[in-house]
Amino acid sequence: MELEFPAEARLPAHEIVGERAGPTAPVCLCLPAMGLAARYYRPFAEALAQALAGTVAVADLRGQGESDARVRRGARFGYREIVEQDLPALLDALAGRFRHRPLFVIGHSLGGQLATLSAVHRQDRLVGLVLVAAGTAHYRVWPHANRLRAWLALSGIRAVATLLPWYPGSVLGFGGDQPRRLMRDWSYNAFTGKYRCAGSRIDYEARLVALRLAVLAVTIRDDPVAPPGAVSELLAKVPQTEQKRLEVDGVSSDEPWRRHFSWARRPDAVLDPVVQWIQARVRAREQTTGARAAA
After folding, report:
1. Which range (78-82, 88-92, 131-135, 152-156) has the least confidence?
2. What is the CATH topology of the domain spanning 13-143+203-294?
3. pTM of the entire structure?
4. Which of 17, 58, 133, 167 has the CB geometry, 3.0–4.6 Å to 178, for a possible disulfide?
């Protein structure tokens, strides 16, 4: 099943698993990493929906997967359109379709960063936010031994994204094809550690400080893409959230770089702690609702 969106919203729900779950079952929106299609997360979505007896929507970020906003066809956008238009519209559509059910967002890598930024617009709709292998792209919070290499790689990516009509990630093997403005937003975070959505009047750094939400951060052991320092920097931006952080092995038979992604295809290590945390948040919500009703 697919949801219907306003005409200006460009983020389609690729697929919904467990649509016929019970009236109080949790609903989870899963957002992918940069360059990955939503269908990559199908094994995780199916396992999560079954374990929760709930509903999981897997969605493509603008310009990825089934999205029709293709940079090779002239699409131009950045973080602002995703954070201020696409994700709020999607959350509104999910909340309208599955009324009164607890709603969570699960974001992987860049999907986790964008989910955090967008939460400032719809935190009233959310029960919790799950970040899987998600931290800032800031090279200065990487391990000391890797910082120079990271700086060189980031400088090369920024140069390519500046010189060419779009960033050809599908050719370079990182991030998928992306428009210049999105890569400028990404590069700004990578070099400064701060978030800025070009073209937006919103001070996201200030809005993040005021965010009040339950957050689970799941890191993958030895993940070179989202090292512990990057995760810590992202969590430090939301100091008023109720945070829980844990580390899992991921697919331990894979090389470290691949582990950043392969958990979504073989999700056992990530699935159990995510399910337990979501179930605990649902129970806490039910207790709070019951206490208010009795008062």
Report:
1. 152-156
2. Rossmann fold (3.40.50)
3. 0.92
4. 167
